[in-house]
Amino acid sequence: MRVAFYAPLKPPDHGVPSGDRRMAQLFLAALRRAGHEPVVAARLRSFEGRGDAERQSRLETIGRKLASRYLRRCRAAPQSAPELWFTYHIYHKAPDWLGPTVAAVLGIPYVVAEASFAPKQEKGRWAAGHRAAEQAIRQAAAVIGLNPADRDGVLPLLRSPAQWVAMAPFLDARSLPVRTQSRMGPPRMIAVAMMRSGDKLASYRILGAALARLCDLDWSLDVVGDGEARSAVEAALAPLGERVRWWGALDAAGVAEHLAATDLCVWPAVNEAFGMALLEAQAAGLPVVAGATGGVGEIMTPGLTGLLVPPDDAAAFAAAVRELLTDRARLDAFGAAARRRVLARHDLGAAARRLHEIFDGLRRRQAA
Hints:
By secondary structure, the chain is α/β, with parallel strands linked by helices. It is 41% helix and 15% strand.
């Protein structure tokens, strides 16, 4: 099936790495693995994070023009027109100004993966994006949910509850390097996250406060990431001194190499959807200590692949990290279990099979 692919929050070839960009890339790979022909239909980044109504209006205008241009191309070459439109990740700050129009005009299914809807934003600074997200979700033939926390907001907008289709977050786990267990030397922890104000900075601050309670133990922390809040993050981790090694922003291969060279992934995960970096860490054979928020509990099993604690409780976080740093056998067992779980439930092949099931169901409904 020819699939028009669009990621309004961050296109798959965006220059700045992030979990959203990685998931967009992975959905393209899963669609190809499932036997489809995805083509990136547009690279417009509709994200507007400041609540600037004028800029949101300009983005809407650009999106409408791009939709018209895309439809003209489809009329000129109908043999290459898409049979399905697939949008990855929409919400009020990053609505889809193209897909619903194109899908309606062409009479093809409109599918959204990872949509969220917050009724409280109806009259807020992103009211236009809120309305656009609502309309897109209402039009969708299927909404693929990676985070079960989104279900309650999205379900009332769907014509049928069956249009909400659960799918596990995924990655190409078999292509990643894997940690060598029982590595010699003091344990190495790792945190992988962008450095920006808000929830990410809050997580870094909790992490710094938690690890400062563990200075009686021998360990180090690798930090992978960068961003506008770099100086604030450095201040948050300053009490840890020379235990911290700063690696900056790395590409996917660089992140994978660093994960495989460490022993434990630590991240408080304040308001995370599910945490792509946490899934990547487990794929590399690392146990995880994380905050119990959003869909994090869906990608790990507490007591088997890692430990979950309240996301804003530095003392509880420190206690969980201590528990694993002082029990190397348990740490290794958790890491091995994490790798097995990811291969069984979150690998690219499983995602391709799930997408095939979803699209096959859409075809049957359309034929009926």
